[in-house]
Amino acid sequence: MATNKENMLEGKLYMAGGKELAKDSKKSRMLTRLFNNSTEEQQEYRVELLKQLFESTGQEIYIEPPFRCDYGCHITVGNQFYANYDCIIIDVAKVTIGDHVFFGPRVGVYTAGHPIDSDVRNTLLEFGKPITIGNSVWIGANTVITPGVNIGNNVVIGAGSIVTKDIPDNVVAVGNPCKVLREITDEDRRYWEKQKNDYYADIED
């Protein structure tokens, strides 16, 4: 016999509840409450709470409160992860986020799904599919990432996108549903390298 948590993490139908899931949920709610009630003078404390909350973290993690998740212990983030205000991660399945990933405000990462058949759905059975986000990814404000999606490396997702299918490496993608707009090119790199050099040449403080 499998537990609800085992079924949940295997992508099978499960019922939210049971001792394991209740314990994980209670811990998540406590840690996110402490995190969201912390102050800007408590950056080290915030990082400590996130390290307790997530399965694993890299270095230089910054999340702007408020932040919400279901369990936290199914979330892995890499080095230099940043999430702006109102980030929500529903982690009933694994959420894997790479290095140098930045979220705009109100980004939602949702692994949870519900049966299309209403009779089954009304029994409160549900399921989850994992989400993976690669390295060096910028996700614009109010983007929604749906269950089972994989986003590649060096990707920009435009604001307000609804990402329902996998996004390949090295592209700009946008829309509802989110689609590839164009590739990221050497011309992009040269342009932004010049902007960076001009900034450092001109800045005083």
Short description:
It is built from five helices and 19 strands. With 205 residues, it is α/β, with parallel strands linked by helices.
- Count of structural domains: 1
Based on secondary structure, the structural category is alpha/beta
Number of helix segments?
5
Low-confidence parts lasting 5 or more residues at pLDDT below 50?
none
| Gyration radius, in Å | 19 Å
Mean pLDDT: 96
Strand order within the widest beta sheet:
2-5-8-13-16-18-19
* The level-1 CATH class: Mainly Beta
Q: State the major sheet.
A: 7 strands, mixed
Residues in helices, as a percent range: 25-40%
Account of the 3D structure:
- This is Acetyltransferase.
- Keywords: Acyltransferase, Repeat, Transferase.
- Pfam families: Hexapep, Mac.
- With 205 residues, this protein is α/β, with parallel strands linked by helices.
- Helices cover 28% and strands 28% of the residues.
- The protein has a single domain, classed as Hexapeptide repeat proteins (UDP N-Acetylglucosamine Acyltransferase, domain 1, 3 Solenoid).
- The model has no long low-confidence stretch (mean pLDDT 96).
- A 7-stranded mixed beta sheet has the order 2-5-8-13-16-18-19. A 5-stranded parallel beta sheet has the order 3-6-9-14-17. A 4-stranded parallel beta sheet has the order 4-7-12-15, with no helix packed on it.
- It is globular and about 65 Å long.
